[in-house]
Amino acid sequence: MKLISWNLNGLRGAHKNGLFLPIFEQKPDILCLQETKVTWEQLPEDLKNVKGYYAYFDHSKGRKGYSGTAIYTKMKPEKVEYGMGTEEFDSEGRLVVAYFAETKDLKKFVLINGYFPNGGSGPDRFKYKMDFYDAFLKFIDTLKKKGYGVIFCGDINTAHEAIDLARPKQNEENTGFLPEERAWIDKVIIHGYTDTFRYIHPTKIGAYSYWDQKTNSRDRNVGWRIDYFFVSTDILSKVKYSNMLDTIYGSDHCPIALELKK
User: Fold this and answer.
1) Model's pTM, two decimal places?
2) I want to staple 58 with a disulfide (CB 3.0 to 4.6 A). Which of 82, 110, 122, 252 is the partner?
3) CA 255, CA 247: separation in Å to the nearest integer?
4) How far apart are CA 198 and CA 216, in angstroms?
């Protein structure tokens, strides 16, 4: 099973420029999108009805052209939820949660596609980010206790270790690489979830998923790895491949991919 996650920084813009639909040439079984910045009603018909896929979209309820997440999947979920069940964290359309039945290859699992808060617009938003993080970890732990395998992906908006960004020293006091943010990822790992990229590539350097467009940093590969696929321990043995699709353009992020063994 092949999964792809991509922060598009605007789905309609990428589609208008002919840079979105080609991602389906990668033949993902599940495609997760973040920062779609669109409601279902605003989508053109060719995005509502991609052949062979079910589509599920969430959007920001209070601010137009902001945030938003989506899942395209070949396999029909048993159910789909939007958010964690808390208005404070669900109003910005940051999570799509898809529940899948057990198959001969994989136990029943939940896929959570998330666009996590940035936290860089002052102390209130930083607190919101950290509160969101804490609520999310409780949410996935609850799912795991119910017997689900857990896969979560998306733009986490934090680089975990110094190896995960080009200029760690210069960013030690910047959101996205603060000790509190990085410690939360430590906690996620302690709770039994694995960063699949580092599982496959424990020492790989220069592997990033986001670059600042204003400084043309992608041309120089001055980037950050802030997009992830995490899996719970019971799925870890199924991980076959996890990597950046960094030759694909269309956003300030590149897609990332995870392949699970049959």
Assistant:
1) 0.97
2) 82
3) 9
4) 26
Task: Identify the CATH number of the domain in which residue 248 sits.
Answer: 3.60.10.10
Catalytic residue chosen out of the listed positions 155, 227, 246, 252: 155
| Residue 155 a catalytic site member | yes
Q: Which domain holds residue 141?
A: 2-260
Q: Radius of gyration of the chain from Cα atoms?
A: 17
- List of residues 6+ apart from 142 with CB closer than 8 A: none
The residue assigned the tokens 């999108």 is 33
DSSP string, 187-242: HHHHTTEEEHHHHH-TT--S--SEE-TTTTTTTTT-EE--EEEEEEHHHHTTEEEE
Distance CA 140, CA 112 (A): 9
* pLDDT tens digit sequence for 190-238: 999 999 999 999 999 999 999 999 999 999 999 999 999 999 999 999 9
In total, how many domains does the chain have? 1
The pair phi, psi for residue 147, each rounded to 5°, is: 95, 10
